[in-house]
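> @MW can you paste both from yesterday?
MW: sure, first one:
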Amino acid sequence: MAIPVGGGPLVGRDAELSILGAMVTAVSTGRGGTAWIEGEPGIGKSALLHQMLAQAQTTGCRVLQAVGDELDQRLPLRALVDALGTEADAEVGSLLRSGGAGGPTGSGDPVPAAVERLLTLIDGYCAQTPLVLAFDDLQWADEASLLIWQRLGRAVDQIPLLLISAYRPVPASPTILRLRQTAEKRGATVVSLGPLEAAAVTGLVTRLAGAEPGPGLRRIAQQAGGNPLYARELVDTLVREHRITVGAGIAEIVDDDRAPVSLAGAIADRLHFLSPETNDALRMAALLGADFSVLDLATVTDTPATRLLPVLDEAIAAGVLAEEGNRLRFRHGLIRQALHDATPASTRAAMHRQAARALAEAGVPVDRIAAHLLVTPEALDGWVLDWLAEHASDLAYRAPEVAADLLRAGADRTSGDSRQAAILRGLSTALFLLSRLDEAEQTIRRSLARARGGPLIADLAWDLSQVLTQGSRHAEALAVLDETLSRTDLPTLRQVRLRARRSRVLTDLGRYDEGEREARAALGEGERLDDRVAVGHALHTLYLLADYEPGLELIERGLAVIGDDPELFDTRLALLVNRCVSLDALGRTEAAMASLHEALRLAERFGTRRLTNLYIFAASSQLDHGAWDEAYAGFTSLSGPIREDRMLQVTGGLAIIAAHRDDRAATAEHLRAGAQLGRHTGHLATTASYLNMARAIDAEQRGRPDEAAVVLAHTVDEERAREFYDRYVWLAELVRLALAADDLELARAAVAAAEADAAQEPLPLRVLTARRARATLDGDAAALLAIATDYRARGMPLELGQCTEEAAVLLARSGDVPAARAALTDAVRAYVDLGAAWDIRRADTRLRPYGVRRGPRSIRRRPSTGWDALTPTEERVARMVAQSRSNPDIAAELFLSRRTVQTHVSNILAKLGVASRIEIARMVVDRSVAQPDGARPDDRAASRP
């Protein structure tokens, strides 16, 4: 932890110390919080921060501090990794230094992986002891660090974490402003440091001068404008120049007409007293950042460390540098800025280049070298271009923003040069990772226009097809692949890989027969060549075209072939997810969730563009299995850019939950958002399934069952059955809607479609759907009640409710009111567990004309507050919190993402009306004592007939 230079008590900040001190006390007892300290340079932000961190250490909290730096502000996570120390460097730093496999289709993206690992590490720290985490000079933080800060800010209400940010509000960064505004809405404390009052300035000058200031010295001190750094520099300058005398307990200035009148002048005066050797070393040190190691300075100055020690000792004694662990730090950013500005721009450029080359020869990480080169793009000469060509891929993965600017400049300077191909490919990778797809496409096309030789052209065509499909431009991707495959200079291996890629694009376009033929051809050739890439991609395509049982065999083959090959990391994740789909469809739910968890674990650990897609898939799986609270938490905890087709899935998922829960305003909002998204065909048509079901519910809520049926009617077309491979989810309901709309032909078509699907592949849920659709059409209440028993055994509450509701209506029509009431009660009980207010209202409305009403005590609805307000998952999470389990540990055991667990803990705190995990633990203990069996009162009530 940094120690404030100058020592002594902090002057004039008693109110601020009291506010922040209370927050430190609170976090030491388990209650987290967020504080923002803002003010101009030199106003005392760092000094206040340091004093709070020193206090936090005395309370037993773990204390960590990151410091932003202007030179490093585009290097992902460097300040936070440094702050968290050796454990973070071993866990995260090595990942960031590892780079990628090259090209947009390379292995993973280490930056999002590093974000996840740092969050997991911090979560683990908080599970052990309260944590105070500070970020000084936050205005220089990189985007990945700000993302972490944002996500940690959402967690402080549930873990013992105090976040303290110190920053300059001018110039205002839009990202920082949004982050601060969001924090304020969530209850953050904002401490705005203004000028010190006159009495406080007098106290500071008294301490520095050794006696109370006289009138002349007071007048000079007023020039500081209440800025403590300026006041300190003014007095220090006067003391060095022997212009202060002390007599009779009064410190007074002599020759006051020569007093410095600016902060810059005071700092320049401090530096003027240093030896030329020390000034030279400090100017180079200023280029290394706010802090640096002696080894770094020795490397860039080509000076033995032993010769630097006297120079550095002088700088420390003069108050220019301060020791901080095994590193040195400029006592204030303004001192470093003065040294930087005192060096002519042309000289600075040469010094940065000198530093870059020395650090490169010393083998330091590529991002630190690139930071120096980015400062002086005009200095991209032969050595720099050689270095860029060699390290373009690694740089793109480690620091994509820096790489995008630096590699673009490098590409412009290597026109017609053999180095340009490698630089352009690195540039396209960086742009792809930044989701700047249009620029990535332009870069790859630029490379293609200059490329010579089949192998490179094939690789670029692969990259371009990936970029185009990422933007849902599958037809254009196919055209690129076809044009490339028509060349005669492609090596056989590249041909086979491109054919495997082409098979997937054909499948996405709905050209299934062509896709299957291409995939089988690529598979055969790939196996002959023993090429994992072709074989893995071909098997994945064939899985998409196969039934579930044989498809599962294809997935296992693909996973065995791919192994741990980093070039096929994303394909492995896709196969794991699809294995989950197949196992779930085959009724092997536990194994399915294990496969999903393996995919999530790998994605979070190694980084991938698929991570958000995996979160979406996990939330969709929870929605399908009736875990709506978990699904909602998963959908709403997403961050970062989301592909349009996946956004369609997210919007649809939120819409269907809102529709079932009778939240008309939210439903309308999500449906409007969905209408603005593109419509997909072929294999991707299923991404709109949730949205279509929500549209059907919305139409029925408006009293238009005919419109509701029309929304889903096209899915019974057998020619489009492959597009809607999950239509078993809604076909039985479509029968009910069609009958309500007096469309007997559509009802029969829906039954025929369900029965055809079950006959083609008799999966458990397809068979149940076919039976239920037939029973609904035939009006067979007994069959529906039997099917409901199967749904109950499978843990599918929505389908259970729908089945028993339909049975209740049929029983009521037949005059069996007691049986109808019992069925209605079962249906509503299932709907209550889901919070499906619309379904309850619909069921009551349908049964009311027959005189069937539920008894006033037949269903106990979950309250909104208190222990009984918790969902079953929230109750499990609460009990695990009481065991001092961290969010990542809970997520691992419950097969959830850490973000979803975080949402659950927030809900638990709100429902229980408590402010910390410690209070949750107390309630769990108290409840265990009061109810040793752990049963919920409403569980026992629900078990009664």
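MW: second:
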Amino acid sequence: MKELSSGQIRQMYLDFFKEKGHTIEPSASLIPVDDPTLLWINSGVATMKKYFDGSVVPKNPRMTSSQKSIRTNDIENVGKTPRHHTLFEMLGNFSVGDYFKKEAIAWAYELLTSDKWFGWDPEKLYMTVYPKDTDAKKFWEEVGVAPDHIIEVEDNFWDIGQGPSGPDSEIFYDRGEKFNNLAPDDPENYPGGENDQYLEVWNIVFSQFNHTPEDTYEPLPRKNIDTGMGLERVVSIFQNAKTNFETDLFLPMIHKAEELGDGVKYGQDSKLDQSFRVIADHARAITVAIGDGAIPSNEGRGYVIRRLIRRAIVNGQKLGIKESFLYKLVPVVGDTLKSHYPEVLEQSDYIAKVVRSEEDRFNETLAGGLKLMSEEIDTAKNNGTNMIDGATAFKLYDTYGFPLELTQESAADAGIKVDTEGFANEMQKQKDRARNARSNAKSMGVQRDLLIEIKDDSEYVGYDQLDVDDAKAVVLIENETLVDETKSDEAEVIFDKTPFYAEMGGQVADKGDIYDENGEKVAEVIDVQHAPNGQNLHTVSLLQPLKKGASYSLKVDKAFHSKVEKNHTATHLLDQSLRNVLGGHTQQAGSLVEPNYLRFDFNHFGSVTSEDLQKVEDMVNEQIFKEINVDTTVTDPETGKKMGAIALFSEKYGDKVRVVSVGDFSIEFCGGTHVKNTNEIGLFKILSESGVGAGVRRIEAVTSKEAFDYLNGQENSLKQIAAKLKVSQMKEVGNRVEQLQQEVKDLETKQASLEAKMAAQQAQDVFGNAETAGSHTIITGVIKDSGMDQLRQLADSWRDKKLSDVLVLGTGKGDKANLIVASSDESVKAGISASDLIKAISSNIQGGGGGRPNMAQAGGKNPAGLDKAMSAAVDWLSQQ
């Protein structure tokens, strides 16, 4: 067997098919684009759908790829079996109406057995075929496969319902008797059965039928080839690994986990080996997924990432890893994949930040959750129910962040179950509470129902004109009813054409006025939204009745519209500037474009430094001052992508899209309105940057006059400060403030010194009045005009001089009181704890506190109770 690394094996596969005329397709992102049927890319063919269904004709009908994929339908088996993974790579070769069965079989055999390529022993290979697929059997025999190595299996037919289908042929590698985990007479002990000796490495699907709605199978006019070879399995054969995990794809992460644990080594304990495998697998999956844009959250892909991170953390605990550790495996994963996915290693710093943030959040509650789970498992066993009730499972989910599946796995390991129905009931109660807390939106629901049947056309012309003189009112709605003439003060209108922009993509709707044929103002447009069938639906405040079929002049508020345009174009400049400064991982997560300000949300972990924020602001203003033309191109989505346009939110685009370009600086798909030149924006100023959720940051900013007004206000404030500081020039303000700060610091130092002297003088009187309390001695006293620092210094002095067994001092200023209690080393040994005493007396000052056995302190808001606290201390000590 050749000695090859995983990177060499992957490249050898791709090079082989490149020699056979295939184009090497790059691995697509794990996040599907324009495919709502998939949560993740889960196979190589998933990225080829557009070619196989005929919607896109490939430049070359022969393609090959190594596609990263994620499957999460059986996460709980990861680590427990030799070959279950969440993330895996699928090597594949594809033919769209070109070569078929004969060539696919011949090339597969050549790749596997030729000394130039894999060089596997042909005697180790077994092929399964569909019984009725005599051609496949014949072609295998023609390339040299012995008849007794070809096995007919009834299940060898690939069919997922309506659509392309056909027989398939699976290839198995005989790993030898040492891998045999079944009895000789076990029905699964054969090539094609569920066993460890005969390992399936490749599946070749011959897509030759169309499964019709009538449940018949008609021949496809163009026959296709779709194959899948699991890289992890092939590597395990080359590297003679017992499981996929003992290969160079996983061992680096396992060895790193060994370093981070409490001395446990992989291979010493089968149960702990499962934890090593879970960590290695999940580290790979989350690293690659986050690199492709997934962010931990409570739903969809984000929930999968969060679940994998938490599952890995819990398994890390089993290895004795108590602190955040998973983020340390990110660069290790990147190193294992760098030959084919260099971008993973390049983004490792960002990915590690995301993982670290999620780890830290979970670790804050992990100990409590694990304790509760352990207690509930013990309870379930002791009371004989062998069941964790739904309320507890929901508490683990809601309070401690444990996904239900994680609770189920832990329970299953202990041999008990979870009341999933009860969990579902608790979850529904929470949803009902949230729903009841929201405002009632029934009216919108009725409107939507009403508008579904309205098919009248409405053309938006606002990109080119803001006034329309002959717009016909084709639909009037009043009180959720279609009318021919309005009678109330507010109504909704659809015109056959309109210059009013409907709110979309974060840009607010236009406002303006409506005039009749005599030029009289009859209504004001206060909002515009898209109706279900795409028309612009105007909400209007009426001055005069509107009539269906009548023509009106529509005039957009140009000043309002212009301000919105300035801010919208500024968001494009801001978006690209953030990418340039913070890195390509930043993605828009929402926006709001108002006339007076803009708000922009983006994915990024950790706050943006003031230095980076300034760089972003400067970069935006640089584009404004360059006076760059803003051009809009109407084209098809594919052409737009080739132009380099950024598609936001994985939106669905129609046949035509608008590509907005700000020179070469920013190119985005966008249906909004924009300035003609960046100089119209005038000025850009960031007002704030903050976090609004896990991994999501928000910038609020202003442009044009609002930016000028903001800076002017800042200048006026600075002038006022300069006047109060009595400096003649504003540039001197900073130096004057530093001088004042130093003066204040000097005064505070002098004050502290005086307070210390006064406290020491008072302490001389206090320290000379030790009294007996039971079998102990105690000194108590209230020190005037002091602070906690002085009390601590006095306590240190008392301890050095060994003046009594216990010391209790107090001080008060205004409405604040402080107490300090000290206990000598001998008293601590005798059971006199300063922490216990402070808790017993702090209620007298309406406060609380704590500390160590030899020193404790408390704060409160009732200085008048200090004398009572002193008496209470003597009483407490007398009883000890």
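> thanks! The CA atoms of residues 125 and 173 lie 5 Å apart.
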